[in-house]
UniProtKB/TrEMBL annotation:
It comes from the Bacteria. It is an enzyme of class 2 (transferase). This is NAD kinase. The keyword Transcription regulation does not apply. It is found in: Cytoplasm. The active site is at residue 45. Belongs to the NAD kinase family. Involved in the regulation of the intracellular balance of NAD and NADP, and is a key enzyme in the biosynthesis of NADP. Catalyzes specifically the phosphorylation on 2'-hydroxyl of the adenosine moiety of NAD to yield NADP. Gene3D superfamilies: Probable inorganic polyphosphate/atp-NAD kinase, domain 1, Probable inorganic polyphosphate/atp-NAD kinase, domain 2. It catalyses: NAD(+) + ATP = ADP + NADP(+) + H(+). It holds the Pfam family NAD_kinase_C.
Length: 268
């Protein structure tokens, strides 16, 4: 099993990386950053998002493991004092894994081009210059005309991140689907949206059609897409991705216990 380490820039994560590399060498576990089968992310959930983004073209082969250097993370099971236990788990690896759904994004631009993205947490579409206006289609049928700050489309594991801040529900990551939540929608006698989050199932297709003069900006996890002056977004299509993210599951961390520990208090 070939292992790679993806770390945040901190001294602590660099030190841990050196320690793990030494441990791997001692156990004769090969290190390969180009074509790894296991990627150890050292940092926070944000670091794991970057590791995912870095290796997203190789998801069928790769399993991820997260070690957190800060507070308890949602994607990070291991603590910094557990380097030795992690190496022991790698030695005993039997390929065990747990998979979670991802979000597929297809963005169309005014110049006729389009681009594909895949999100682990969420994609947002926001306009900071003026009210964002878009038609929301569910399975190709017009559902509503949205006016407001923007929309957040989140995966089940991303539901505890941005989605939660904008009033979305936390989804059990065993549910295959995705969630749409509103950001400051305009609701009055003239303008109307559903006004509550929606959780879509595995086969749903969500399409957002933006107005011709749209200045809306798209994000995918940590990345904000730079569009420049020449083209603008015209249409976005969201669905559950064919690929999933796999984590090497050496130990069981109960999801709801983690939710409680992160947002209410207590031990994870
Ligand atoms: P950041 O500003 O450091 O992230 C914000 C917080 O979200 C951090 O505490 C981060 O944990 C945490 N987080 C990331 N993924 C999570 C998940 N799946 N469940 C629960 N918490 C999660 O930025 P970042 O580290 O680059 O992370 C990017 C993410 O930040 C985006 O994908 C988005 O979900 C979130 N975000 C939230 C808001 C908001 O709530 N208003 C605004 C922008 C972005 P770590 O400290 O472990 O990294
Ligand atoms: Mn972060």
């Amino acid at each position: 099993m070939k292992v790679a380490i993806y770390n945040s820039g901190t001294q602590e994560s660099k030190r841990l990386k050196r320690m793990i590399i030494q441990g791997l060498a001692k156990e004769k576990i090969p290190y390969d950053e180009e074509q790894p089968e296991l990627v150890i992310s050292i940092g926070g959930d944000g670091t794991l998002l970057s590791a995912f983004n870095h290796y997203e073209d190789q998801l069928d082969r790769i399993r991820f493991v997260g070690m957190h250097t800060g507070h308890l993370g949602f994607y990070t099971d291991w603590r910094t004092f557990e380097v030795f236990d992690l190496i022991e788990s790698l030695k005993a690896d039997t390929g065990q894994s747990v998979s979670y759904p991802l979000l597929d994004i297809d963005a169309k631009y005014s110049d006729g081009t389009h681009q594909k993205f895949i999100a682990l947490n969420e994609s947002t579409i926001k306009d900071t210059l003026k009210t964002m206006v878009c038609d929301v289609y569910v399975n190709a049928e017009l559902f509503e005309r949205f006016r407001g700050d923007g929309l957040c489309i989140s995966t089940p594991t991303g539901s505890t991140a941005y989605n939660k801040s904008v009033g979305g529900a936390i989804m059990d990551p065993k549910i295959i689907g995705f969630q749409l939540s509103e950001m400051a929608s305009l609701n009055n006698r003239v303008f109307r949206t559903l006004g509550s989050p929606i959780i879509f199932g595995a086969d749903a297709v969500l399409t957002l059609r933006l107005d011709d003069d749209s200045t809306a900006v798209l994000s995918c996890d940590r990345t904000q897409l730079e569009l420049g002056q020449v083209r603008h977004l015209t249409e976005l299509t969201y669905s559950v991705a064919k690929q999933q993210i796999r984590f090497a599951k050496y130990r069981h961390t109960d999801f709801w216990r983690r939710v409680k520990a992160s947002f209410i208090g207590g031990e994870a």
